[in-house]
Design the sequence.
């Protein structure tokens, strides 16, 4: 049986999707941008925490805000150069929040208050649906957009679907992504990574892509991460089933974590990989577009009035 529980979490409410048979669970913070805080899945009757989340409100405020742990990246993932872009002959300025680089980073909804739209508890799955609608008055992004996020836990693991709908009377630019930090319980240096990618994008000293993709072969097959430092965006390889898989293997615990993302037209065709300084986890970020896409147009989605786009990613344990 699957169920949903609601608890207090400091100033917020936190929702748990639970598998009562296995003890697996997912936790979500609607009032903090629908942040994905925890994913704990089972292998061989043993539970594994797969996300670098927060156990207390204080820890979440410190690390969630500073490192964007588990946050929703909308309307743009990654960096927007100087916080500025031009769309349909009009220039917009987004507030700078990456001060050393002088960029806007990871969108505008991190602290937005998503509302619970629906809860579904069934024998085979639990679903939590959240929604948020922009006012059309946000600084630098004055467009009306409705976002619905569906979190699902079932026997196959965790999945997350995002539906973005243009509620404005004009075209709007859209980019989307997520920022989960994956962990296994071992140092990331000891783990092995497999990336199904064409290559990575070269960037300048401010981490803005310069229009060149470098072929990547090192991690096309399972390779130990060792001391490799990532803050790198990759273009996924096209597959017939349109599923891009990034695999993190931990031989110390005999587990493999698969983060999968649905690609294709207007899909999560990019993946950003980042290693934080403590190297206890690795961010594997499904994204619809490249950094600075509002300017370079690489993967940018333009929605006409009343048009929608559906996006999907998930995590499973093998």
Sequence:
């Amino acid at each position: 049986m699957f169920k949903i529980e609601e608890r207090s979490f400091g100033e917020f409410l936190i929702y748990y999707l639970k598998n009562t048979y296995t003890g697996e669970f997912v936790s979500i913070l609607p009032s903090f941008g629908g942040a994905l805080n925890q994913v704990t899945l089972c292998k061989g009757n043993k539970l594994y925490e797969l996300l670098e989340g927060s156990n207390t409100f204080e820890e979440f405020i410190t690390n969630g805000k500073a490192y964007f742990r588990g946050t929703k990246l909308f309307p743009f993932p990654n960096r927007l150069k100087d916080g500025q872009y031009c769309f349909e002959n009009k220039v917009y300025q987004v507030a700078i929040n990456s001060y050393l680089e002088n960029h806007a980073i990871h969108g505008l909804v991190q602290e937005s208050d998503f509302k619970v739209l629906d809860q579904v508890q069934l024998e085979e799955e639990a679903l939590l649906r959240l929604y948020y609608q922009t006012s059309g008055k946000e600084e630098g992004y004055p467009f009306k957009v409705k976002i619905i996020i569906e979190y699902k836990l079932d026997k196959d693991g965790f999945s997350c679907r995002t539906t973005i709908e243009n509620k404005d009377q004009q075209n709007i630019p859209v980019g989307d992504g997520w920022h989960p930090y994956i962990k296994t319980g071992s140092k990331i240096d000891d783990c092995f990574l497999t990336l199904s990618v064409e290559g990575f994008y070269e960037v300048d000293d401010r981490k803005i892509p310069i229009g060149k993709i470098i072929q990547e072969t090192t991690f096309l097959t399972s390779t130990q991460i060792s001391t490799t430092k990532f803050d790198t965006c990759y273009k996924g390889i096209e597959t017939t089933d349109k599923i891009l898989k990034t695999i993190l293997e931990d031989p110390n615990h005999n587990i493999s974590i698969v983060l999968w993302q649905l690609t294709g037209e207007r899909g999560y065709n990019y993946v950003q990989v980042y290693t934080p300084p403590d190297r206890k986890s690795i961010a594997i970020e499904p994204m619809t577009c490249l950094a600075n896409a509002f300017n370079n147009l690489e993967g940018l989605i333009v929605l006409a009035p009343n048009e929608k786009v559906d996006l999907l990613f998930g995590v499973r344990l093998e």
Observations:
- Residues 273 and 284 are 5 Å apart (CA to CA).
- The helical segments are 57-67, 293-296.
- The chain has a mean pLDDT of 96.
